[in-house]
Amino acid sequence: MSWTDLYRQKLVSADEAVKVIKSGDWVEYGEFAGQVQDLDKALAKRKDELKDVKVRAVTRAAAIEVVKADPTGEHFTYVNWHFSGLDRKLHDQGLCYFSPILFREVPRYYRENQQVDVTMITVTPMDKHGYFNYGLNNAGTRASLDKASKIIVEVNENMPRVLGGNEECIHISEVDFVVEGSNWAIPALPVAKISETDEKIAKMIVNELEDGCCIQLGIGGMPNAVGKLIAQSDLKNLGVHTEMFVDAYMDMYLAGRVTGLNKNIDKGKMVFTFAMGSKNLYDFMDNNPVCASYPVDYTNVPHIIAQNDKVTSINNCIEIDLFGQVCSESAGIRQISGTGGQVDFFEGAYLSKGGKAFCCFTASYKDKQGNLKSRINPLLTSGAIVTTPRTVVQYVVTENGIVNLKGKSTWERAEALISLAHPDFHEQLAKDAEKMGIWRKSNKK
Fold this sequence. Notes:
Layout: H1 3-10, H2 14-17, E1 26-31, H3 38-44, E2 53-58, H4 65-69, E3 76-80, H5 85-92, E4 97-98, H6 106-113, E5 118-123, E6 131-133, H7 141-147, E7 150-155, E8 169-171, E9 177-180, H8 196-206, E10 214-217, H9 221-232, E11 239-241, E12 244-245, H10 247-254, E13 270-272, E14 274-275, H11 279-285, E15 291-293, H12 296-299, H13 302-305, E16 311-316, E17 319-321, E18 326-327, E19 330-331, E20 334-335, H14 342-351, E21 356-360, E22 364-366, E23 372-374, E24 376-377, E25 395-398, E26 401-404, H15 410-420, H16 426-435
Parallel strand pairs: 1-2, 1-5, 2-3, 3-4, 5-7, 7-9, 10-11, 10-16, 11-13, 12-14, 13-15, 16-21, 17-24, 21-25
Antiparallel strand pairs: 6-8, 17-18, 19-20, 22-23, 25-26
Helix pairs in contact: 6-7, 8-9, 9-10, 15-16
């Protein structure tokens, strides 16, 4: 039997495919921009037939129909490992639950800890060898497929074919059902706006970069600003080893800044585990051999990251306290995003020969009432999650400067962090530090 014959044998409608899902099942929807949509709509239609179906996803980029069909959560429970803006709103309404993770550990969670009854993923059309490519998402996909009792693929002609790397495809012989989807447009992530403050901070970071360094950028306006400035710089032979692949990498590559020739592993390749960005980015990645998709237990393992020299990790945070504890995922108890790979890359960069890890943010912000608030506080907001422990943090950057916390005592940390705060908060922060016993008399100016 040819691969095409086997394909035809397994080809069914979305409505037919989701009949395999039973009450009580755990169902994987895939990850990021490549999560299933037609299968989601088909499963939503089965609401009244099912009870206690748990749907798990990562950073949903499109409306989720099972939640819309069941706003009371009597039939479907939606669980997510890293919130998008959409997931955050659902969480605020009690319609989405969060699972804390270290991103590098996700494949092991699947293999050792998770129940997976059905995995449904979006894929490219099958090639002549019988393989479907995952496209923009790798991360924990292979592990979820290996653990699943049933596998359904939703074919989308708009999904770019992204080369490996490793674990970037699945063979028709492993698949239970094939669904030819409606070829919905792959969700594009708007390029984050760059503020004047973002650009000021980005300039300080770019001044710290060297020819041949290996770049990891997080999500948001600040890392995007760094990428934009790198593209406009005269830096040479930069490398890329990251978790999230965004437009900034394409811009740096097309500007001639990225060659990967100085990398010790995956030389000449831009390595990542998932991508979200513009349609231009997806077109750039399609069948492009310079891009290499890997599972997250390769891209995010600190000792693998550190095999490249001069790894430079650039990430945002929400707030930091005077001990150096970083919150990058919640506003108090309100979950905003997730731990993601920040800890992975801060550790990996520091272990790298000549590596640097930057935690960057604006020193202050205005709340809804227009009041000025500091992002540098004596203690983290009550209920805030410690994303990165104080022991892991290296460089901290605001528009007011840059400090290195490694090796510093508690009073040295407090002094350094206060210097980065908005001037309006310096005096009160010093008083708070004194009350907390992390301020020397000689600190007082």
